[in-house]
Specification:
By secondary structure, this protein is α/β, with parallel strands linked by helices. It has a domain of 227 residues: Rossmann fold (3-Layer(aba) Sandwich), CATH 3.40.50.1100. 42% of the residues lie in helices and 16% in strands. The structure holds pyridoxal-5'-phosphate.
Length: 452
């Protein structure tokens, strides 16, 4: 299996190369050159546990990795999950199901992909003998999931920039209380955008980048998307047989990464009736799916901060399919989007998707209602998935975070604070971070000193 760039101007690469590179050299995102069908495999896959299914799925894509290596990578990846089902499907009522994706070490769905990615990087270091330095900027969840994916691994250092005072205290603890020597949480005196800016400059310095074997951790790595495909199949196979083909999968969405994975498995033949993109008040994707208008607005802070995004980076992967693989057209659309901040699709229609949008008061109201009706506590991101559910049709809401990560909003809604043993333990551990200015030169010299 080869991987091609959405922009069509980079040479096709192997799975291993696509994972090591992240972004394609032409600025596009990698996708498989053709999608295998999984229709004939579903009966046989029904008997597999999560790890077994994950291995079978990756065998279709990671064709340049020997099977026993892949087996090791995948089996280890889910050892840090606290629920034996890995992604349990909870039944709230006859037609309402929640796919819980928060049983990993940082209590959000990003662990599914970043634990696998950490193991893939480790394999790369073993094979090439070259250590790597991973660098990223975060406004919260991605940074902690990345840190926990790389924690304590040989031959890898990870530097994560986060804005001082602008991530939640729990998120900060998740990044800074690991006790691991290869982890450098850098608390910058600036905003998330300042962090992104410094990062861009550092990655733009080719010589520095090569010398430190710098690698970016972000939502565009293909391995992340593939790892996320697995829980859609697993969840679908756990539904009662009579409900499977009518089920709507509802996905709290920001960067379009999680829901894009659902779209990919649907294209491979998993009979998902519909995928609903559930946004918070940052509704660019909702506007797109309802009017065909994709235009950036201002990012507005919300109760579901990990979805406070306007430019959904994985959208380009969807465009590839929407434009029937016409890479010249994808380039043109992306260029015009960069120039004007807006693209309009005439007569946009796509039977795969629907969408919804929930503002902050809606989030609080839903947390209260779901708790009252079902005795179940959802986090503010998951809450967005509960807007506009038709009870006559089966729905699976993907739960992207544990409610204990967002105690304040949950407390406002139901007057109690959910807890998690993992988060309670964090409160007793020593914080270790590295405060720096947001100046590129300072950050660069910090990496220089600590990455050797
Ligand atoms: C990252 C995140 C999301 C958004 O996921 P995308 O793949 O960016 O759409 C939703 N909920 C939580 C809790 C997250 O951490």
């Amino acid at each position: 299996m080869k991987y091609i760039s959405t922009r069509g101007q980079a040479k096709p690469v192997t799975f291993t190369e696509a994972v090591a590179t992240g972004l394609a050299p032409d600025g596009g995102l990698y996708l498989p050159e053709s999608l295998p069908s999984i229709v004939g495999r579903l009966d046989e896959w029904e008997a597999l546990d999560y790890r077994g299914l994950c291995l079978e799925f990756f065998k279709l894509f990671a064709t340049d990795i020997p099977e026993e290596t892949l087996h090791r990578i995948i089996h280890k990846a889910y050892d840090s999950f606290t629920n034996p089902a890995i992604a349990p499907l909870k039944t709230l009522d006859d037609n309402l199901f929640v796919l819980e994706l928060f049983h990993g070490p940082t209590l959000a769905f990003k662990d599914f992909a970043l634990q696998v990615l950490g193991n893939l990087y480790e394999e790369q270091v073993r094979r090439t003998g070259q250590p790597i330095t991973v660098l990223g900027a975060t406004s919260g969840d991605t940074g902690s999931a990345a840190i926990h994916g790389l924690l304590g691994r040989q031959g890898m250092k990870i530097f994560i920039l986060y804005p001082d005072g602008r991530v939640s205290p729990l998120q900060e603890r998740q990044m800074t209380c690991t006790g691991a020597d290869n982890v450098f949480p850098i608390c910058i005196n600036g905003t998330f955008d300042d962090g992104q800016h410094a990062l861009k400059e550092i990655f733009g310095d080719q010589e520095f980048r090569r010398r430190h074997a710098l690698s970016a951790i972000n939502s565009i790595n293909l391995a992340r998307i593939l790892a996320q495909c697995v829980y859609y199949i697993h969840g679908w196979l756990r539904l009662p047989r009579g409900k499977r083909e009518d089920a709507v999968f509802v996905v709290p969405t920001g960067n379009f990464g999680n829901i894009f994975a659902g779209y990919l498995v649907r294209r491979m033949g998993l009979p998902i009736a519909n995928l609903r993109a559930a946004t918070n008040r940052n509704d660019i994707l909702h506007r797109f799916f309802t009017t065909g208008d994709y235009s950036v607005g201002e990012v507005r802070p919300s109760h579901a901060p990990s979805m406070d995004i306007q430019v959904a980076s994985n959208f380009e992967r969807f465009l590839h399919f929407h434009q029937q693989g016409d890479s010249a057209r994808v380039r043109e659309i992306m260029q015009s989007f960069r120039d004007t901040g807006r693209v309009h699709f005439e007569n946009f229609e796509n039977e795969a998707f629907s969408s919804s949008c929930t503002d902050d008061s809606g989030i609080v109201e839903i947390i209260r209602r779901v708790h009252r009706d079902h005795g179940y506590i959802v986090d503010p991101h998951t809450a967005c998935g509960f807007t506009g559910i038709d009870p006559s049709r089966p729905h699976v809401v993907l739960s992207t975070a544990h409610p204990a990560k967002f105690p304040d909003t949950v407390n406002t809604a139901i007057g109690q604070e959910p807890t998690s043993p993992i988060l309670e333990k964090l409160k007793t551990l020593q914080v270790r971070n590295y405060p720096l200015s947001a100046e590129t030169a300072d950050i660069r010299s910090f990496i220089e000193t600590h990455s050797g």
